[in-house]
Amino acid sequence: MNSQQPTNITNELAKQRNRGAAERTLLSWIQNCLTLIGFGIAFDRIFNAINQTFARNDTALNAKIAQSIGLGAIALGIFLLVLAIISYVKDVQSIAQPDYLYRPIHTSTVFVITAIILFGLIAIFVIFTSAVLIPVARAILLPA
Q1: Which residues contact 18 (CB under 8 A, 6 or more apart)?
Q2: Alpha carbon distances (Å) from 26 to 31, 46, 122, 144
Q3: For residue range 29-86, what is the model confidence (pLDDT) as tens digits?
Q4: Coil, helix or strand for 64?
Q5: Cα–Cα distances in Å, from 117 out to 32, 37, 87?
Q6: Using CA of residue 3, residue 8, residue 9, residue 14, what is the dihedral sign?
Q7: Is the separation of the CB atoms in 70 and 40 below 8 Å?
Q8: Pairwise CA distance, residues 98 & 114, whole Å
Q9: Phi/psi at 140 (nearest 5 deg)?
Q10: Taking the complete model, does pTM exceed 0.70, yes or no?
Q11: Are 126 and 65 in contact (CB under 8 A)?
């Protein structure tokens, strides 16, 4: 007597297709996270070049801001990479179940999207504040 359940070739092919989609999604997340980490590393260099071009800005403040944003981008890239790997493992385990059901969206996906949007908004605010508002306030408060 055969103890295995009969396999439906259509279901198995669909599971293989979903596994392939999960792998492509993981590879895309890895690519994006490495880009974010690389941007974090390069951000300090970009800010240093800007400071050399516009020497009248406060270089100590700009260096702190550049380091903070760069380290934030690196940390966000590593954090998102860990979340992507966890999501991939969950997807593969879910696909391996005999009663596999498609889950349309993960809670972690909503969290990741929110984290990226918040990081971008904070970075824009900090850059705008340091590049525009502080020099204007100095010009108004401390006339030359």
Answers
A1: 91, 95, 100, 102
A2: 9, 29, 27, 55
A3: 999 999 989 988 888 787 777 777 766 666 666 777 778 888 888 988 898 899 889 8
A4: helix
A5: 15, 16, 20
A6: negative
A7: yes
A8: 33
A9: -80, -45
A10: no
A11: yes
